UniProtKB/TrEMBL annotation:
Any one Gene Ontology molecular-function term assigned to this protein's record: metal ion binding
Record key words, sorted: Cytoplasm, Kinase, Magnesium, Metal-binding, Phosphotransferase system, Pyruvate, Sugar transport, Transferase, Transport
The gene coding this protein: ptsI
Pfam families in the cross-refs: PEP-utilisers_N, PEP-utilizers, PEP-utilizers_C
Domain Phosphotransferase system enzyme I N-terminal as annotated: residue spans: 1-50
Entry keyword Iron: no
UniProt record, GO biological process: phosphoenolpyruvate-dependent sugar phosphotransferase system
Entry-linked InterPro entries: PEP-util_enz_mobile_dom, PEP-utilizing_PTS_enzyme, PEP_util_C, PEP_util_CS, Phosphohistidine_dom_sf, PTS_EI, PTS_EI-like, PTS_EIN
Name of the protein: Phosphoenolpyruvate-protein phosphotransferase
Enzyme class, broadest EC rank: transferase
Length: 500
C-alpha cells in the first residue's frame, strides 16, 4: 500500500509519536487530515478525487492499528447506494438482500468493483460520471439499469411503466432459462461446451449450484484476503477449499492463486508504492519474493486436491520462466507435505491465465509446460489496447470486439490445441451473448461466467452449430475494426432470428 512508504506521510507520523507522545493512530489521523486539506485546495479534479482514496486507505490503517475489523454496512431496509467510488473490498461486504443496486461516479464496467457486483448479483452502474451524487437525494425513486448502464432519477410514470414491463419480460425469460439448469451446453449439432462459473465470494457457491454451473472455472481467492485484517491461514483456506470441492460433487474447480495488485488492494500486505500498479508488482510477480503470501495457499490447495478435481491456475503470466518457477515451487511444497505426512493428488493439473499479450504470443511454448489455459479477456483487452480498466474516460475504448483481441484469442487456442491442452475463457467476453459464437467457433472448450449468466450462456451456445460458428469466426478474423466485428455478429443473430 502506497501510504505506508510515503515519505510525506510516515516521517511526520513518527515525529508526532516521538515528540508529542501521541499514539500511532492519533498521529496518523492528524497527518491524514492535513493532507486532505492540501488536496482539497488543488484545482486538478483527478488529484482532488484522491481525497476519498486517502481517507479510505487511512481508515483501513487506523482499523489495523486499533485491532478493529471493517464494519459491514447495516441497513434497516433494502436500499440503492450512490457513492463517488467503491473499492472491491468494500463491495465484497455488501449483503445482496439489503442492497437493491449501487451507482458510482468513478470506475468502469470492467473494474473489479463491477465484477464483484455481478458476482453478488447486484445491479450496478459503475462510472456513471461526475455530478450524479449532486443530483440525487435520499428518498428519490431511481431506476438502475445495469444491463444498459443507465441511471434514471425520478422517472416519469411512462418510463416506470416501461421498466415494469421489462421486469415482467425478464421474469418470463428466467422461467424459460430454468430448463437449462440440469442440461449441458450443446450446440445444435451436439458439440459440448462446458459452462462453468466464476466464484468471487462465499455466497457465489450456492448461486452457481442453483444456476447449474458445470464447475468453477475461476475461483477468485482475493476475497479470502479482503474479508480479513490478516492473511487467511493454511487451515482456514483448506477448510473452504474442501467445502467447495464437496459441494461441487465431482465437478472441476479451478483455483486462481492470489491476484492482488492493480485495483485490488489488501492493506496489510504492505505492498510498495507504484506509479502504475496494473503494470507493476502484482499477482505471480509477488510470489517469488513473498513466500509467506503464496505458500500457505498452495499448501492448502494441494492438501484439498485429494478430495476432488481441483486445479491450480497462476495469474498474470508473462514469460516461460515464471511458469517454470511456479511449478518448481509446487514441487518443493509437495516434498514438504510428504515429509509432514499430508496426502495430495500427485497429478494435480496446473494452468495459467492468458491475459498479457506476451503470453498469447508465446502460447506455443507455455502450452508445453502446463495442462490448460484460461484466457482472461478483461485484462487481455486492457493490456492489448492500452486502456486502463478503472478509468471511465477511456472505458469506451475497451472492446473485446477489437480485431487484435480476436487474433490473440485465436492464436492462443491454436497453440494450445496443437499441444493437446484445453482452453477456457473468463471475463466479460465469456458471457457476451453476441460474442459467444466466435468463442465456440475458434474452439474454446469452456466458458466461465457469473452465476447470473450461466443459464443464458447455455442457451446461446445452443443457438448455432459448431460448423456455423467456425465459419463465422473465420469471417470475423478477416475484419478490420471492432465496429465491423460487432455488426457482423449482430447480422449473424438477426439472420437466425429471421429464419425462425
Amino acid at each position: 500500500m502506497m501510504l505506508l512508504d510515503d515519505p510525506e506521510l510516515i516521517p511526520p507520523v513518527r515525529e508526532m509519536i516521538k515528540n508529542e507522545k501521541l499514539s500511532a493512530a492519533a498521529a496518523l489521523l492528524q497527518v491524514i487530515r492535513k493532507h486532505e486539506s492540501v488536496f482539497a485546495g488543488i484545482e486538478d479534479e483527478y488529484i482532488r478525487a484522491r481525497i476519498a482514496d486517502l481517507h479510505d486507505i487511512g481508515a483501513q490503517i487506523l482499523r489495523l492499528l486499533k485491532g478493529c475489523r471493517r464494519p459491514k454496512p447495516c441497513f434497516e431496509k433494502p436500499v440503492i447506494i450512490f457513492s463517488h467510488d467503491l473499492t472491491p473490498s468494500e463491495t465484497a461486504l455488501f449483503d445482496p438482500a439489503m442492497i437493491l443496486a449501487f451507482v458510482t461516479e468513478a470506475g468502469s464496467r470492467t473494474s473489479h468493483t463491477s465484477i464483484m457486483a455481478r458476482s453478488l448479483g447486484i445491479p450496478a452502474v459503475v462510472g456513471a460520471g461526475e455530478g450524479i451524487l449532486a443530483r440525487v437525494k435520499t428518498g428519490d425513486r431511481v431506476i438502475v439499469d445495469g444491463d444498459e448502464g443507465l441511471v434514471i432519477l425520478r422517472p416519469s410514470p411512462e418510463i416506470l411503466a416501461s421498466y415494469r414491463e421489462r421486469q415482467e419480460q425478464e421474469k418470463k425469460r428466467r422461467e424459460r432459462l430454468a430448463a437449462y439448469r440440469t442440461r449441458p451446453a450443446l450446440t445444435r449439432d451436439g458439440h459440448r461446451v462446458v459452462v462453468a462459473g466464476n466464484m468471487g465470494c462465499r455466497g457465489d457457491l450456492e448461486r452457481l449450484l442453483e444456476h447449474g454451473a458445470e464447475g468453477i472455472g475461476l475461483f477468485r481467492t482475493e476475497f479470502l484476503y479482503m474479508e480479513k485484517e490478516r492473511p487467511p491461514s493454511e487451515e482456514e483456506q483448506l477448510a473452504l477449499y474442501l467445502e467447495v470441492v464437496r459441494k461441487m460433487n465431482g465437478r472441476p474447480v479451478i483455483i486462481r492463486t492470489l491476484d492482488v495488485g492493480g485495483d485490488k488492494e489488501i492493506p496489510y500486505l504492505n505492498l510498495p508504492p507504484e506509479q502504475n500498479p496494473f503494470l507493476g508488482y502484482r499477482a505471480v510477480r509477488l510470489y517469488f519474493e513473498r513466500p509467506e503470501i503464496y505458500k500457505p495457499q498452495l499448501r492448502a490447495i494441494l492438501r484439498a486436491s485429494c478430495s476432488g478435481p481441483l486445479k491450480i491456475m497462476f495469474p498474470m503470466i508473462s514469460s516461460l520462466e515464471e511458469v517454470r518457477r511456479g511449478r518448481a515451487i509446487i514441487e518443493e511444497i509437495k516434498k514438504e507435505l510428504i515429509k509432514e505426512g499430508h496426502s495430495f493428488a500427485e497429478s494435480i493439473e496446473i494452468g495459467v491465465m492468458i491475459e498479457i499479450p506476451s503470453a498469447a504470443l508465446i502460447a506455443d511454448a507455455l502450452a508445453e509446460e502446463v495442462d490448460f489455459f484460461s484466457i482472461g479477456t478483461n485484462d487481455l483487452v486492457q493490456y492489448a489496447l492500452a486502456v486502463d480498466r478503472t478509468n471511465e474516460k477511456v472505458d469506451h475504448l475497451a472492446s473485446h470486439y477489437h480485431p487484435a483481441v480476436l487474433k490473440l484469442i485465436d492464436m492462443t487456442v491454436k497453440a494450445a490445441h496443437a499441444r493437446g491442452i484445453p482452453v477456457g475463457v473468463c471475463g466479460e467476453a465469456a458471457a457476451d451473448s453476441l460474442f459467444i459464437p466466435f468463442l465456440v467457433g475458434v474452439g474454446i472448450e469452456e466458458l466461465s461466467v457469473a452465476a447470473a449468466a450461466v443459464l443464458s450462456t447455455k442457451e446461446v451456445v445452443g443457438e448455432c452449430t459448431k460448423e456455423e460458428a467456425a465459419r463465422l469466426a473465420a469471417q470475423l478474423l478477416q475484419l478490420k475494426s471492432a465496429v465491423e466485428v460487432k455488426q457482423a455478429l449482430t447480422a449473424f443473430f438477426q439472420k437466425k432470428s429471421d429464419s425462425k
